[in-house]
Amino acid sequence: MQAFPPSFQRLVHELSRLPSIGEKSATRLAYFILRQEGDLGAKLASAIQQACSQIRLCETCFFLSESEKCRFCSDPGRDEHLICVVEKPMDIIAFERMGEFRGLYHVLHGLWAPLRGQGPESMKLRELLERVEKGEIEEVILATSSTVEGDATALYIAKLLSERGIVSSRLAQGIPKGGELEYSDEVTLSRALSGRSRIDS
Amino acid sequence: MQAFPPSFQRLVHELSRLPSIGEKSATRLAYFILRQEGDLGAKLASAIQQACSQIRLCETCFFLSESEKCRFCSDPGRDEHLICVVEKPMDIIAFERMGEFRGLYHVLHGLWAPLRGQGPESMKLRELLERVEKGEIEEVILATSSTVEGDATALYIAKLLSERGIVSSRLAQGIPKGGELEYSDEVTLSRALSGRSRIDS
Predict the structure, then answer these.
(1) Are residues B21 and B107 in the same domain?
(2) Which residue in A159, B37, B39, B142 has the most C-beta neighbors within 10 A?
(3) For residues A88 and B4, what is the distance between their CA atoms, to the nearest angstrom?
(4) Rounded CA gap, B164 and B109, in Å?
(5) How many structural domains comprise chain A?
(6) Which one of A52, A54, A65 would you mutate to disrupt binding with B, by most B Cβ within 10 Å of its Cβ?
(7) Do B48 and A55 touch (CB under 8 A)?
(8) B171 and B81 in one domain?
(9) What pLDDT sits at residue A199?
(10) Is A57 part of the contact surface with chain B (CB cutoff 8 Å)?
(11) Is residue A64 part of a domain?
């Protein structure tokens, strides 16, 4: 690395701070950016600067937005009595791709992960509680991932919500569409069994 | 993706133009850059701009450099009668890590890859020929990778060099250090056998 010019080394260093990009990948990316004769580099740099300066978090739901309210919170056609709580902005994209949910969202930007030193204050939880205390919320769907940390976070929030008299729910767990029974793990199968639904013919 | 603000979508688009980064990874990287509260984003953008504006190719060997001549070509301690030809700047780092080579380099910035539509003009070959015709070169080491394209490129260049009366050589092929014989492929083993050296005891 010492043999590269300083500005190249600096670019490699900054790129390798990105998640899942080590020094080797960063070197390859830096060389690729330079070989594109300035076009990709200039566009990428300006896209980063523009995104960093223009994007903030929606002051209600904390989704990414370029104005005070995001596209969901400023949409009068959305049902404001129903809130879906997710970990990351990307999770909302999955919900919107499905296209059946008409409520509002709340992005935690984190999970309760004591093993990684992340307590409840590392997520937008206080803001969620203030929101449900202010509004007329009928149900909060706790749509964190079905992992240990996602489950723990959901249970923790559900308890705080029930103390405030708010109904909360969790997404159903079971066999994914296209999933083969043979390869299902025991926890998934157990939850699919206990959550089975009657076939009305 | 449509649900994200435009400047976020643009950042994802630019990031996904990088090699081996798809839309999903690009979205994760963009979110990571934004969550670092401006610091990483600002530094990364400025590192890209600085590298793009300051780095050019050495006018002799085409290694990355911030001035007309790179650190190797401007080092009087290097043996200018010996040139090692490589595909990419990163290959030079491997040579320098070894630390035994004291000659100069020549970076092709490409290989002869007809299947990918890259002819001899896609690499810095004309410049290599001009260089050996001008200087007093004793040997050119063709250190392209040991792949089909790397071998073809080396053979092609060797022919052009021999027409000009220049001796060229190729790195030895054989079992890598630590490599187990059991897992060696037949081509490697065949080359290791034909290139065997006598043990003088």
Answers:
(1) no
(2) B142
(3) 12
(4) 23
(5) 2
(6) A52
(7) no
(8) yes
(9) 86
(10) no
(11) no
Contact B63, B72 (CB under 8 A): yes
Residue with tokens 């092929």: B173
Report the chain A residue with the minimal C-alpha distance to residue B18. A29
Whether residue A83 sits in one domain with residue A130: yes
Contact B163, B147 (CB under 8 A): no
- CA of A31: which chain B residue's CA is closest? B89
Which one-letter DSSP state was computed for residue A118? B
Q: What are the tens digits of pLDDT across the range B16-48?
A: 999 999 999 999 999 999 987 658 999 999 999
A34 and B55: CB-CB below 8 Å? yes
User: What is the domain range of residue A25?
Assistant: 6-54
A84-123 b/e with 16+ CB inside 10 Å = b? bbbbbbbbbbebbeeeebebbbbbbbbbbbeeeeeebeeb
Q: Is residue B62 part of a domain?
A: no
Residues 68-97 of B with CB under 8 A from A: 70-72, 88-90, 92-93, 96
- At B104-134, the pLDDT tens digits run 999 999 999 888 888 888 899 999 999 999 9
The CATH number covering residue A112 comes to: 3.40.1360.10
Kindly state whether residues B49 and B82 are assigned to the same domain. Answer: no
Rounded to 5 degrees, φ, ψ at B103 are: -85, -165
- Which tokens belong to B112? 């002869």
ipTM above 0.90, yes or no: no
pLDDT (0 to 100) of residue B194: 86
- Using a CB-CB cut-off of 8 Å, the residues of chain B touching A39 are none
